[in-house]
Amino acid sequence: MSDIEQLERETLAGVAAAETIAALEEVRVGALGKKGVISERMKTLGKMSPEERKTAGAALNVLKDKVAAAIETKKAALENAALDARLATEKLDVTLPIAPTPKGRIHPVTQTMEEIVAIFSAMGFDVAEGPDIEDDFHNFTALNFPPDHPAREMHDTFFFNEKDDGEGGKKRMLLRTHTSPVQIRTMMTRKPPIRIIIPGRTFRCDSDQTHTPMFHQVEGLVIDRETHMGHLKGTLEAFCKAFFEVDSVKTRFRPHFFPFTEPSAEMDIGYERVGNEIRIGEGAKWMEILGSGMVHPNVLRNCGLDPDEYQGFAFGMGIDRLAMLKYGIPDLRDFFAADARWLEHYGFDPLDQPNLATGLSR
Ligand code: DAH
After folding, report:
1. Residue 104 falls within a domain, yes or no?
2. Could you say which of 21, 72, 223, 355 would form a disulfide bridge with 192 (CB–CB 3.0 to 4.6 Å)?
3. Local structure of residue 303 (DSSP, 8 states)
4. Positions in the chain whose pLDDT score sits under 70
5. 176-227 tens-digit pLDDT
6. Containing domain of residue 20, as a range?
7. How many domains are contained in the chain?
8. How close is the Cα of 261 to the center of ligand 1, in Å?
9. What is the mean pLDDT of the chain?
C-alpha cells in the first residue's frame, strides 16, 4: 500500500470515528489545516522532479478532495443528529390546558356593563357611544333643558375654560353629566327605527359614600312609529329579571320630571333585607333604580324628527349602583381606589364571558 493510500485510510477512519462536531473539527485541522498532514505533504511537492510532482500532486489533490467531502458529509450527519436529539427533548404538548388560575380580574363595573350589553343585545338593541367632552347643545339644550335650569350651574357640571367659538362668540365645553347627549347624537345621524343602549362614563362635581366625580351610566333609547309606555315597562321589567337573575321582580313607576321626557317616571323595584343582604325581587320595600319616560316632542324636533310620525321611550340608570346592589359592594369610592386586594375579592374571572345561555355571573 502506498503511503498516500495509508494516509487516506487513517484520515477517513478518523472522520468516521468522530462523534462530535468538535472532534470532527480536530480531524479536519489535523489533516487539512495549515499544519495538517495533507497540507504538509503538499508543501513537499516543490522539491520533487516535474515527473514525480505530476503523479504525487494529482494523488494528493484527489486525497484532499475525498477527505474534505467525507468531513462535509459527516458534519451534516452530526448536525442532523443533534437537531433530532434537541427536538426530542424540547417537545411541547399544545393540547395541554393553560394555567388553571389566570392572573388579573375583571372589574365589577366592566362585568356589569357586559351583563347589561348581553341582556339588551338579546332584545335587539345596539350599543352606541359618544364623547366624554361635550358641548352645551348636546348635554343640555337639545335635551330641552330651559336656559336657566339649575343642572347647568357650576355646582353640578365640570366646565372647561371659555374659548372663542370662531364665530365672534364664546363657547365652553364640559364633561358630560349624563349619557343622554348620545341620544341626540344618534337621532341626528340615524334614521328610526332606533334601538340602542349607551354605556359610558359621566361626571359631576360630587363625592361621598355613594357619589364619585366620575361614575358610569347606561342610557336606553327606542324610537319607532308606534312606541308607548307599555313597551318601556315591558323592556325594563324583562331587564331587571335578567340582570338580577331572579324569576320575578316587583316594579313600580312613580311620576317624576325630566326635561327630555314627557311623561317621565322613576322606576322602583321591590326588595327585602335579610341580615346584611339585600334580596331583590319580592319584599315590601321599594328602591329607586332608574329614570325613564317618553321622549319629549321638543327633543324629537331638535333632532329633525316629526313627533307626529315618531315616538320613543328612553331610560337612564347608574351602572356602579347596579353593581353595588347586585354584588353587595358597600362603598362606591372603593371602585376607583385601584386596590388590588379589593379587585381580587370583588373582581371576576376573565375567562367567564357574561351571556344569557350559560348565566350572567358566577
Ligand atoms: N339623564 C338622567 C340623569 O342623569 C337619567 C335619565 C332619566 C335618562 C330619564 C333618561 C330618561 O333617558 O328618560 O339623571
Report:
1. no
2. 223
3. T
4. 1, 100-102, 154-155, 362
5. 999 999 999 999 999 999 999 999 999 999 888 888 999 999 999 999 999 9
6. 2-89
7. 2
8. 9
9. 92
One-letter amino acid identity for 291? G
What are the cell numbers at 54? 505530476
Cβ within 8 Å of residue 16, ≥6 positions away: 74
Is position 124 within any domain?
yes
Same domain, 123 and 151: yes
| pTM for this prediction | 0.72
pLDDT computed for residue 1 by the predictor = 57
Query: Residues lining ligand 1, judged by CB closer than 6 Å?
Result: 178, 180, 219, 258, 261, 291-293, 314-316
- pLDDT given for residue 102 in this prediction: 62
> Per the omega criterion (within 30 degrees of 0), is the bond before 263 cis?
yes
* Alpha-carbon dihedral sign for residues 181, 184, 187, 193: positive
Helix ranges (H only) for 286-349 are 297-302, 319-327, 340-346
Distance 197 CA to ligand 1 centre (A): 12
In a domain, 101, yes or no: no
> Are residues 114 and 6 part of one domain?
no
Same domain, 202 and 82: no
